[in-house]
Design a protein that fits this description.
181 residues, TPR-like_helical_dom_sf, DUF924 domain-containing protein, DUF924
Length: 181
């Protein structure tokens, strides 16, 4: 898995899954991803974002590896966010280079944009809404707007507080804010 075909392995696996697998997953899928990709994730996370910007498909595979796979491999633990910064760097540079426009499907572009939606930075959230609006996928745009609104209101995702060892702030407690992502 650590060879030159890592990109193909990631893309074939992820895009071979069903819509429900992407959004609902479950323990079996989490286990499959962990068994198949944990070593690759551990190896590739040591590289700078620039290592994944040779072409659109390499950037997309890296974003999946650093953004989507950890959410399955480490569900419920802080490690699921450990490579969000790397996924965001790759996604940001890929979009700036126009790689998103070179991807074949709307679904691929949507996954390339996902790190913006997962960021706790309001500027990234604004860009997420902009990208998903241009994509024309109303389903994904709805989630982008929801994520944006949480960051605009709280400056972070309160549902991550326990996993990240953060104390809830009074405004989060008062709002009863628990977001199920």
């Amino acid at each position: 898995m650590t060879g030159s075909d890592w990109r193909s392995d990631v893309l074939k696996f992820w895009f071979g899954l069903s819509f429900d697998d992407w959004w609902k997953g479950g323990p079996d899928l989490d286990h499959r991803i962990r068994e198949r990709f944990l070593d690759l994730w551990s190896q590739k996370r040591e590289f700078p974002a620039s290592s994944f910007l040779d072409d659109p498909l390499t950037a997309l595979a890296a974003v999946l590896l650093f953004d989507q796979f950890p959410r399955h491999m480490f569900r419920g633990h802080a490690d699921q966010f450990a490579t969000d910064h790397l996924a965001l760097q790759v996604a940001r540079e890929a979009v700036d280079r126009g790689f998103d426009e070179q991807l074949q499907t709307q679904v691929e572009r949507g996954f390339l944009y996902m790190p913006f939606q997962h960021s706790e930075n309001l500027a990234d959230q604004k860009r997420s809404v902009q990208l998903f609006t241009a994509l024309g996928d109303d389903f994904q745009l709805g989630f982008a707007r929801e994520h944006h609104d949480v960051i605009a209101r709280f400056g972070r995702f309160p549902h991550r507080n326990a996993m990240l060892g953060r104390a809830p702030r009074p405004d989060e407690v008062a709002a009863g804010e628990v977001v199920p992502w």
